[in-house]
Amino acid sequence: MTDERPEVSRGPLDELFGALADPTRRFILQRLIHQGPATATHLAGECPTSRDAPLTRQAIVKHLQILVDAGLARPVRVGREVRYTATPAPLATVVSWLTETGPRWDRRMEKFRGRLDTIDDQGTSTA
Amino acid sequence: MTDERPEVSRGPLDELFGALADPTRRFILQRLIHQGPATATHLAGECPTSRDAPLTRQAIVKHLQILVDAGLARPVRVGREVRYTATPAPLATVVSWLTETGPRWDRRMEKFRGRLDTIDDQGTSTA
DNA sequence: ATTATATGCAACTGACAGGTTGCAGTTCGT
DNA sequence: ACGAACTGCAACCTGTCAGTTGCATATAAT
């Protein structure tokens, strides 16, 4: 009982929103979802940089780690390479927060909330 | 057209997701939405801190500025005080991105996308 | 065995975010 | 007019984030 205040969130929303706050991370996530799993080395050659030089593999690795920490991706070791798979399920948490945030939104989106729970760890089968 | 690469987003999504990535900011936003407009000074006394000391007014002001920059709040001067009002309309952009991101999500959420546009624009007009 | 490819780890840099303090300028109330 | 309350601005501190480089290590192919 040392703590009786509302206590600032500190939940997964910080990691989720934080992960999505970076354009490179959003690019990677969409890339993994739409084109399937890929390795950090491979992604390094694909990510747009807004500069002329491409991003380093290590930079990508760090971004991927943040996505993994947020629960949005999962590394799978295949021989000497590590293949990252998108696991977009936690996005439902974000949508959930958004729909609970607006006053009229609540009215408008209430009926969808139940369906969002049916989203699974699909993204792309690990195979 | 000197640029033929996909060019990393750089859009409002960075500011939107970035604004929502902080628990204090989420608290303020919800506070403004649910309890109505308030001044920075007033909010300073309400925000949970996870520490024993409350946040400074200046800290709140900075948070509010970030929300304003993201289009999620709007300052209204009333005499000597500045009352901040929530303008949650841009959240539709976030939901929109989320619904366009998943493959099956698209199927599942496609029918809602049109309705999201009906959320009223209370203050997105920075111009 | 040797070489090429891919990941893992650590140190380092530059920039920005969150937060504080102090002070100056405005507006309200009496 | 005078003091109280509120906002605005600027400097400053600290930690974290994005990104890089260099090197070590593990696996695959020949």
What is the N-to-C succession of helices and strands of chain A?
A: HHEHHEEHH
Which percent bin holds the helix content of chain A?
40-55%
Report the span from N to C terminus of chain A: 48 Å
Shape annotation of chain A: globular
Question: What's the gyration radius of chain A in Å?
Answer: 17 Å
Side-by-side strand order of the widest sheet of chain A: 1-3-2
Instruction: Describe the oligomeric state of these chains in a short phrase.
Output: homodimer
Report the largest inter-chain contact: A-B, 44 and 43 residues
Number of helices of chain A: 6
- Kindly state the number of beta strands of chain A: 3
Indicate the structural class of chain A: mainly alpha
Question: Largest sheet of chain A, if any?
Answer: 3 strands, antiparallel
Low-pLDDT stretches of chain A are 1-6, 106-127
Strand content of chain A: 5-15%
Instruction: Output mean pLDDT of chain A.
Output: 82
Description of the molecule:
Two copies of one chain form a homodimer. With 127 residues, chain A is mainly alpha-helical. The first copy, chain A, has six helices and three strands; from the N terminus they run ααβααββαα. Chain A has a three-stranded antiparallel β-sheet. In chain A, α1 runs antiparallel to α4 and α5 packs antiparallel against α6. Chain A is globular and about 45 Å long. The first copy, chain A, starts with 11 loop residues before the first helix and ends in an 11-residue tail after the last helix. Chains A and B meet through α1, α2, α5 and α6 of A and α1, α2, α5 and α6 of B. Chain A binds a DNA duplex (30 and 30 nucleotides) through α4.
